[in-house]
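Data availability (excerpt). The following record was deposited with the supplementary files.
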Amino acid sequence: MTALDTARPGISPTAAASEVEAQGRGGGGGPSRRKVGRVLTWLALTALAVLFIYPFVWLLSASFKPRGEVFDNRLLPKTFTFENYIAVWQEAPMALWLFNTLLVTVLATVAVTISSSMVAWGFAYFRFRGRKYLFGVVLATMMLPQAVTMIPVFLIWESVGMTGTLTPLWAGNLFGSAFYIFLLRQFFLGLPRELFDAAKIDGASNWQIFTRIALPLCKPALVVTAIFEFQAAWTDLMRPLIYLRDSDTFTVPRGLKSLVDQFGFGGEWHWEILITASVISTIPMIILFFVGQRYFVQGIATTGTKG
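Predicted structure:
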């Protein structure tokens, strides 16, 4: 059956043909508009990507320039040199700082992921009196500025003789984090409770249900938690400034601060050294994101869908 056969009664074949042609032109406008919208979306995303990538590209380019050309704004260095990557290891114990940072970051990430998941599982699975109010108290701790608890926490660590060591930089994560507890609890609530009830009937203990069923199912949320904390611990400067005094215990952010102080007091800024050290400290974060990107996006997309 053709389009002319489906024309309205009382309409001549010529008028019907003209109407079908007009409908064809109108229908073609829809896909065209969608195509234009898709192109504009890609252009906007490309512009935003360039906007966010440009600072790192500039930083990477400047790390291969001599001191006099660092701020010439050329993305392709006029004088290409690897001397900065050799000098940075000579001017500062970068290897030791990287090791300290990696140690603190791994311990902080593992500690907060395990502790927060256990607390979140307790709030999501168990039913007890005052559960919602207690969870509200946990969330309320996020309202406290870090400056309010900075001095009391420092006095606690000083009383146990841990100032000047790496322990205060990660041991606090053994008690969990309110934000990660909320994140993981929302994910646990999205899992079917019937699955846990069936395992309970089969004789599984609460610990077995948590470790063998709940944790494997919330792998994306755990990866998101780990990535967030890894980035936070790797780039943390405030706590190293408070607790670390010896350069042998410095992390990379604290070490970069010492380099700024060292090269700034004499009036001779070695920006090429500072920029190169910044590139070295940034690359692990980029690698981590690309490795965990799939789980990161999946975890963000599926977390918080149930309250």
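Summary of structural features: Residues 13-62 form the longest helix (50 residues).
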